[in-house]
Amino acid sequence: MNSLEGKVSDAFLKEFNLPKEFISHEAIANAYYTYEKCESMAKLIKDRVNFDPKIAIICGSGLGDIGNLVENAVSIPYTEIPEFPRSTVLGHLGNLIFGNLSGLPVVCMQGRFHPFEGYSMSLCTLPIKIFKLLGCKMVILTNAAGGLNRVLNVGDVMLIKDHMSFPLLSLKNPLIGVNDERFGPRFVPINKLYTKSLRELFKVCSHELNIPIHEGVYGTIGGPSYETIADSRFCLTAGMDCVGMSTSHEAIVAAYCGLKVLACSIITDKAPTDYEDEEPDHKEIVKVAAAKAKDIEKLICCFLSKIKEDLSLIE
Ligand SMILES: O=P(O)(O)O[C@H]1O[C@H](CO)[C@@H](O)[C@H]1O
Ligand SMILES: Nc1nc2[nH]cnc2c(=O)[nH]1
């Protein structure tokens, strides 16, 4: 007997009228985390923190220090939220931090979930649904990424204007399954996913702070193995500027939930495109991200202070 027997809602099974074994993994996971279940998870969190965040920030590998900037912080370890996934990757601490950043109420996810950890796409993006139910209007997604485009140097910040994701293109999409319109619509347009007005505001911060940034296309591979040379060359030819194993699916679920998205990468290494190139190393990636995090932190704080001046930007 499937261990989910009796847990996945009857309504869901009736909809399919088929044995669960015939239904995709994503659909099962989505059916398990119903709107009501997400609501009760959000309520549990809210009861504990008594705080209404407007903006959610997801910290990439080695970028968890963003969470330490939050003022009057109340922290909840993921392990204390029933049925919330656990962080298993070095550089991802596993805490939700609630408090103020640049005068705005935020929730900061110190550590994300990646599909290669064994979590389904829907589990990786479950926090976004909970952020929506907590009242958030926008997510800021950050990540560590390997530079493919040779204009990108280690330590550079790349603002994400678009993405390309191998998992998403091949039917590993967190929105697969019976749709609950209370979260969002069945079909989601994503050609304007990375909100232009917010990117423009981020660029203003880059100028004001004199922190040069690039703008480009983030590519998602499944991982946890890094790219072959052939993979990297293909990704570059296809139009990816940098590569990682996260973010794109989170951005899609945010758009689905009606949240605005701003996303940026810290280039932690050069993705190998020649057979003599160095091998990527996660410990080194985390070290570089942490060492260069200050630029992203300053940019995010400046960006939030500008949002504070005009909240209609995220309404
Ligand atoms: O995307 P974040 O979480 O920053 O992590 C990146 O770093 C890891 C590889 O070193 C992968 O998990 C990749 O996605
Ligand atoms: N080459 C490479 N570098 C990274 N740095 C962070 N993530 C990645 C990745 O997926 N590939």
UniProtKB/TrEMBL annotation:
Q: Name one GO cellular component term.
A: cytoplasm
Q: Which reaction does it catalyse?
A: 2'-deoxyguanosine + phosphate = 2-deoxy-alpha-D-ribose 1-phosphate + guanine; guanosine + phosphate = alpha-D-ribose 1-phosphate + guanine; inosine + phosphate = alpha-D-ribose 1-phosphate + hypoxanthine; 2'-deoxyinosine + phosphate = 2-deoxy-alpha-D-ribose 1-phosphate + hypoxanthine
SUPFAM superfamilies, per this entry?
A: Purine and uridine phosphorylases (SSF53167)
Q: Which CDD domains match?
A: PNP-EcPNPII_like (cd09009)
Protein name, as recorded: Purine nucleoside phosphorylase
Protein EC = 2.4.2.1
Q: Name all Nucleoside phosphorylase domain ranges.
A: 54-303
Q: Which InterPro entries match?
A: Nucleoside_phosphorylase_d (IPR000845), Nucleoside_phosphorylase_sf (IPR035994), Pur_Nuc_Pase_Ino/Guo-sp (IPR011270), Purine_phosphorylase (IPR011268)
List, in alphabetical order, the GO biological process terms annotated in this UniProt record. Answer: nucleoside metabolic process
The kind of enzyme this is, by top-level EC class, is transferase
Q: Name one Pfam family in it.
A: PNP_UDP_1
Q: Which family does it belong to?
A: Belongs to the PNP/MTAP phosphorylase family.
Q: Look up and give the organism this protein is from.
A: Brachionus calyciflorus
Known role:
The purine nucleoside phosphorylases catalyze the phosphorolytic breakdown of the N-glycosidic bond in the beta-(deoxy)ribonucleoside molecules, with the formation of the corresponding free purine bases and pentose-1-phosphate.
Identify a single GO molecular function assigned to this protein. Answer: purine-nucleoside phosphorylase activity
The pathway noted for it is: Purine metabolism; purine nucleoside salvage
**The keyword Glycosyltransferase belongs to this UniProt entry's keyword annotation:** yes
Which keywords does this Swiss-Prot/TrEMBL entry list?
Answer: Glycosyltransferase, Transferase
